[in-house]
Amino acid sequence: MEIGVPKEIKNHEYRIGFIPSGVEARRSSAMAYSVNSAGNRLEMITA
To answer: Least C-beta-crowded within 10 Å: which of 17, 26, 28, 39?
Structure first.
């Protein structure tokens, strides 16, 4: 399963809906997580 998190589309908004610690907590499952460009601190983490 692949889970995508959309970026904020407003100017100067850099929030994402799924924070890196939330992804880390779910790494044990067989899922791939990706965040679009506004969340560049978490581009892709694969479980």
So the answer is: 28
DSSP E strand boundaries for 1-47: 2-5, 32-35, 44-46
* pLDDT tens column, 18-42: 667 776 776 666 566 665 555 455 4
Q: How many domains does the chain have?
A: 1
- Asked if 18 and 31 touch (Cβ cutoff 8 Å), the reply is no
Alpha-carbon gap, residue 34 to 42, rounded angstroms: 7
Domain span at residue 33 reads: 2-46
pLDDT of residue 24: 72
